[in-house]
Amino acid sequence: MITSLMNFRDLTGEAVIQARQCVINAEIEAAREKVIHARSLFKAGIHNVVNGSSGIKTAAAHFLVIKRLQTDTRYLDAVITDNLCMFSPEGYLYLFMQQRYFL
């Protein structure tokens, strides 16, 4: 059950650091899922190897975005506010589609 959700700009102190790390961790998990999906497509057959190189390209691009999120806090803060991410008071990211907190 959702007790209370907060915007990123309403968080203070340690919760801001936790919120940033949760967003980065969520992006890393999403990129890993892209790699796993692309790998399974490649194992499915030769046609996917020849015609399905876009899966690897998008996963590689996602890892470049993650690298920038890890190094540029201004960019990370802008991404968080633009995506309207919501957090618990402790700074844990709430995933609305899965109805759970990302720790």
Strand neighbour order, sheet with most strands:
1-2
Low-pLDDT stretches are: none
Given helix and strand content, the structural type is mainly alpha
| DSSP E strands, number | 4
Multimeric status of the protein: single chain
Number of domains: 1
- Distance from first to last alpha carbon: 16 Å
Number of helices: 4
**What integer value in Å does the Rg equal?**
16 Å
Q: H/E series, N to C?
A: EHHHHEEE
Secondary structure: helix percent: 55-70%
Give the mean pLDDT: 86
The largest sheet is: 2 strands, antiparallel
Overall morphology = elongated
Portion in beta strands: 5-15%
Features:
4 strands; 10% strand; 4 helices; elongated; 103 residues
Task: Describe the fold and architecture.
The chain has 103 residues and is mainly alpha-helical. The chain has one domain. The protein has four helices and four strands; from the N terminus they run βααααβββ. The strands form two sheets. A two-stranded antiparallel sheet has the order 1-2. A two-stranded antiparallel ribbon has the order 3-4. A hairpin with a 4-residue loop joins strand 3 and strand 4. The chain is elongated and about 50 Å long. The two termini are 16 Å apart. The model has no long low-confidence stretch (mean pLDDT 86).
